[in-house]
Design brief:
This protein is an alpha+beta fold and 410 residues long. The protein is built from ten helices and 14 strands. It folds into two domains: 154 residues, Serine Threonine Protein Phosphatase 5, Tetratricopeptide repeat, CATH 1.25.40.10; 231 residues, Porin, CATH 2.40.160.
């Protein structure tokens, strides 16, 4: 029996060695993918893919992957040659259109990219990858109207596409040249103040080649007194990833509003649908109050999660404010439910005049919700917020806010 097994092994050994020396096209394809994705060795992966094609010249998936490898290796001419040859063969695979159009998009050949994407969509009308790429191309050339159409089509196919949801919010901010808005905020206090607060803000937003600019006028009635404030904010774009927030305001009615306010933040749209911000806010009543802010956000399917903090140092201690926000998008970037919970006071809130008497150093808890919805070029918002604040040491009071908003784009 032992002699028989040894003889059988001797017979099978050449066959085994031959199989190892002559891998199949599928085996070479798998090895090429592993080499590319895990080792990032595109040159070796290209050689493996070309060897696989020698064994299976009509293996379309390998040819498409070879085109991608040339793209990643920055060999544009070779990548384009591979894709052009596939086009001559009449290949209509979804991945072919995505890979070829991506090559053209990454090399600023946007007209060719759009043509390839449209050809691909005529064959694969439900392709999420093609619709997303179309939105990216139009967004990259500042054609926000077409970008918005493409992203809307994708979200109809899959409302839970995370990357599409993140891009939709960015497109929404730029899709119309002009927008006017009005916001009304009502505040009621059970102990801290005897009079209710009323605040009305009217704004005009203009999209420019550098980014958006917002001019806002505010009227407030607080402590049974009235005051006005003027604000100017800008969001200049620095690159595809980074943009700034720059803001300032002035009021002659100190106490109702701060006399001056300024703010600057660096914002980043990061990979994997993350976003981040770091900056400062400054308020001047009779003295300067400096607050430093940072936030991180993440889109996941229909959700947006955000955590923001404000840190206010002084000579004795450091005060902290934290706010967590969750949004659930229903349709477009203007249609969502939001929930918010946090501690402390932020300079963006209508209560920022309370910072003057350093009540921000006492304990504050807040929780609220918001509903936004759109009808064509009109968007509406309804929000409510509850505050429980220690307005004097060991004395707490409640505040109830209702906010109504309307925006018209044109």
């Amino acid at each position: 029996m032992k002699r028989y097994k040894a003889f059988l092994l001797l017979l099978l050994l050449p066959i085994t060695m031959s199989a190892q020396q002559n891998p199949t096209a599928d085996e070479l394809f798998a090895k090429a993918r592993t080499t590319a994705f895990e080792q990032k060795d595109y040159s070796t992966s290209i050689a493996l893919a070309k060897e696989a094609l020698e064994k299976a010249p009509n293996y379309t998936d390998i040819s498409i992957f070879l085109g991608r490898l040339y793209t990643w290796n920055k060999d544009v001419a070779s990548a384009r040659a591979v894709f052009e040859e596939l086009g001559k063969k009449g290949v209509k695979d979804e991945d072919y259109f995505v890979a070829y159009a991506s090559l053209e998009y990454w090399n600023d050949q946007n007209t060719n990219a759009i043509k390839l994407i449209d050809d691909g969509l005529s064959n694969h009308p439900s392709s999420e990858a093609l619709w997303l790429l179309k939105a990216k191309v139009y967004f990259g050339i500042n054609d926000y109207a077409e970008a918005e159409k493409a992203i809307a089509a994708l979200l109809l196919i899959n409302p839970k596409n995370t990357e599409a949801r993140a891009l939709a919010v960015r497109i929404n901010e730029l899709s119309s040249k002009n927008a006017i808005g009005i916001v009304y905020n009502y505040s009621h206090f059970d102990k801290q103040f005897g009079d209710d607060w009323h605040i009305i803000g009217v704004s005009y937003k203009r999209i420019t080649s550098l980014g958006s600019i917002i001019l806002r006028g505010n009227y407030a009635n607080k402590f049974a007194q009235s005051g006005t404030q003027i604000e100017l904010e800008a969001y200049p774009r620095l690159s595809k990833i980074f943009y700034l927030y720059v803001g300032g305001g002035y009021s002659n009615d100190v106490g109702i509003f701060p006399k001056y306010r300024t703010g600057v933040s660096l914002n980043a749209n990061l990979p994997h649908s993350f976003e981040a911000e770091i900056g400062y806010r400054q308020l001047y009543f009779t003295n300067n109050i400096w607050m430093y802010t940072a936030s991180v956000g993440k889109y996941y399917k229909n959700f947006w999660f955000n955590l923001r903090t404000y840190i206010t140092p002084d000579n004795k201690n450091i005060s902290h404010s934290y706010t967590a926000t969750v949004r659930y998008y229903t349709k477009s970037a203007q249609d969502y439910f939001a929930f918010q919970i946090g501690t402390g006071i932020s300079p963006e809130e209508s209560r920022n005049n309370l910072l003057e008497n350093e009540t921000f150093k006492l304990k504050t808890f807040k929780v609220g919700a918001e509903y936004n919805f759109s009808v064509h070029a009109n968007s509406f918002s309804l929000g409510t917020m509850y505050y429980n604040q220690e307005y004097r040491p060991n004395e707490k009071g409640n505040q109830f806010d209702i906010t109504l908003g309307y925006t018209r784009k044109f």
